[in-house]
Design goal:
about 150 residues; alpha+beta; five-stranded mixed beta sheet; 4 helices; about 30% helix; about 25% strand
Length: about 150
């Protein structure tokens, strides 16, 4: 499979929303695409970006993405990179692309003086958990809560 990994561009946004929908479906989560393209445009390309995103691009489209933010840890008194999403279309899996994305995010974290990289995945996503363990990541048992505002 021929591909490149690059920063997300405004022209990628409509396909990025489709990938977000597929990612949500895979994780058995509720997702509405309504208004997402404009909100992602502001978050990624506004005056003060809140979100960063790498995409996996083929000749014709994008087949995956990894989005991330920078956050601050009270316990470490340091910045960390938070990987919000990592998703590849089924046909883009098993080529080592996920590992390359993780390595790129690690490098970005180091360049930005991050103390570590953090993320989460559902407990039922055994394939991802095995992949993350293979990459040297260590899991923590926690329950994530969401409170609607």
């Amino acid at each position: 499979m021929e591909y490149s990994i690059r920063n997300c561009e405004p022209a990628d946004l409509s396909k990025l929303v489709v990938l977000c929908q597929k990612h949500a479906d895979y994780e058995k989560a509720v997702f509405s695409p309504e208004g997402k393209e404009n909100k992602l445009k502001e978050a990624l390309f506004g005056d003060r970006p809140k979100l960063h995103c790498l995409v996996v691009a083929t000749k014709d489209t994008i087949v995956g993405y990894a989005s991330f933010t920078f956050d601050f840890s009270t316990w470490n008194a340091a910045t960390f990179l938070y990987m919000d999403c990592l998703f590849l279309e089924e046909e883009a899996r098993s080529f080592g692309i996920g590992e390359i994305l993780i390595e790129k995010l690690k490098q970005i974290g180091k360049e930005n003086n991050c103390v570590n990289m953090q993320w989460q995945t559902p407990q039922f996503n055994e394939r991802a958990i095995k992949f993350y363990h293979r990459m040297g990541a260590k899991g923590k048992d926690k329950v994530r809560f969401t409170l609607d505002l």
